[in-house]
Amino acid sequence: MKLTFLGTGGVTAAPLFGCDCQACHRARRDEKRKRAPCSALIEAGSERILLDGGLPLLHERFQPGELTRILLTHYHMDHVQGLFALRWGVGTPIPVWGPPDEKGSDDLFKHPGLLDFRPSLTPFVPHQFGNLFVTPLPLQHSRLTHGYLFDWHGMRLAWLCDTCGLPPETRDYLIGQPLDQLVLDCNDPPRSDARNHNDVQLALAIIDELQPRQAWLTHLSHEMDNWLANHSLPEHVQPARDGLTLCLGADQPVTV
């Protein structure tokens, strides 16, 4: 199984319009420092799953038939905006799963085009796509949000974004699932009033509870990038970057 980070930024990621902080200045000078909307591509066997649809030009990035399905964490615009152009394409419908949020986003449900919205997957119940098992996990956000646990031949990767802390039932479920990789929301540097998204203190506390072999921070703001420039993280915790690929195999170590 491969996971490629297509974007690792939140809505205030670098470069932020009008901001000339250190992180935003670096991102304007160096393409590798830019952060696109938080999303990923999962490749496992014949499956090519888009995880969130916030990239604005999805209809140009992928060829017809290239995506087998789309999984959505929630329906905030920065996680679905790319679907609005993609839906008007022609060809084979693309199955889409997300949390059971009846409002969706704007008119996506009313005019889905080639997006084939399916009934939501049941939380904590593994669903099989080929040889890949996908388990939805409730998160804590300002809209109904699901994270996902991916199990590929016993190798487990959890994607937990967007969230501020974890619901007790999700935490307890994951403590019983040894994790090879954890991808976790960490939008902000230390804050006294974290809400909707983890700050780094909350993120590190979650990592300490779940004890993954490796953890990656995503949904990073420009403020978080400034904090990272002057602070270190535990050895097994790293900030993700756009384009980074994690490879997990049943008989091979994780490679980056």
Count of DSSP strands: 15
pLDDT < 50 stretches: 252-256
Helix content: 10-25%
Task: Sketch the topology as an H/E string, one letter per element.
Answer: EHEEHEHEEEEEEHEHEHEEE
Q: Profile the largest sheet.
A: 8 strands, mixed
- What distance lies between the first and last C-alpha atoms, to the nearest angstrom? 12 Å
- Strand order, largest beta sheet: 6-5-4-3-2-1-14-15
Structural class: alpha/beta
Oligomer: single chain
What is the strand content? 25-35%
| Average of pLDDT | 95
**Judging from the principal axes of the Cα atoms, what is the shape?**
globular
Number of helices: 6
Rg, alpha carbons: 17 Å
Q: Can you offer a commentary on this structure?
A:
The protein has 256 residues and is an alpha/beta fold. The protein has six helices and 15 strands. The strands form two sheets. It has an eight-stranded mixed sheet with strand order 6-5-4-3-2-1-14-15, with no helix packed on it. Strands 7-8-9-10-11-12-13 form a seven-stranded mixed sheet, with helices on one face. Strand 14 and strand 15 form a beta hairpin. The radius of gyration is 17 Å and the shape is globular. The model is unreliable at 252-256 (pLDDT under 50).
